[in-house]
Amino acid sequence: MDIKAVVGRNVKQHREAKGLSQEQLAFEADLHRTYVSGVERGIRNPTVLIVAKLANALGVEPSKLLELND
Amino acid sequence: MDIKAVVGRNVKQHREAKGLSQEQLAFEADLHRTYVSGVERGIRNPTVLIVAKLANALGVEPSKLLELND
DNA sequence: ATGTGACTCATAGTCCGTA
DNA sequence: CTACGGACTATGAGTCACA
C-alpha cells in the first residue's frame, strides 16, 4: 500500500485517458518531463502542491489522484 | 483554492471529530507536534507520504484529506 | 517518447524554545 | 493544549546527459 505508487498509477491512468504524453502533461502542469516520469514510476514523493498542479492539468480533483481503486 | 489550507482544515476537522489533541495525533502519526500545528494552519506543504500517515492515524482514506467539501 | 543516476538548491520535517 | 519563532538536518524540487 505505497501511496507514491498509488499516485503514480493514477496520474498515468488519467494521463493516458486524456491521450497525453508525459511531455505534454509536464508542460501543462508546468513541471519537468523527467519529474513527471519519476512520479508515475512511484519514485518521487510529491507534495500536495505538486499533486494539485497535476490534478489541474489532468482536469480532475486532487483527491482523485490519491484514491486506491484497486 | 489553496490546497494546503484544504488539507489543514480537513485534518483539524477529522482530528476534533475523533477527540484527539494535536499532540496525540502527532504521536499516532509519528510526526512532530509543531509540524501538525503547521499543517492545520495551512502554512506547511506536506508530501503524500505525510498525508498518508495522517490519514492512517485519523482512520480515514488519504484522498479524504484533499477533498474540498466547501 | 520514456527511464535513470547524479546533481544543486529549496524546503520538508525536527527539535529547541516562548507566549 | 495550541500558536509561533529560530536553527538545524533530511529530503523534495527541479534539471541534465544519456541509455
From TrEMBL, chains A, B:
Q: Does the keyword Coiled coil apply?
A: no
Q: Supply the alphabetized keyword list.
A: DNA-binding
Gene Ontology CC terms, in alphabetical order: cytosol
Checking SMART domains in the record gives: HTH_XRE
A single Pfam family, by name?
HTH_3
Q: Which GO molecular function, any one, fits this protein according to its record? A: DNA binding
> What Gene3D superfamilies does UniProt report for this protein, alphabetically?
lambda repressor-like DNA-binding domains (1.10.260.40)
**InterPro entries hit by this protein:** Cro/C1-type_HTH (IPR001387), Lambda_DNA-bd_dom_sf (IPR010982), TransReg_Diox_bact_type (IPR050807)
Manganese recorded as keyword: no
> Where's the HTH cro/C1-type domain?
11-65
Q: What is this protein called?
A: Helix-turn-helix
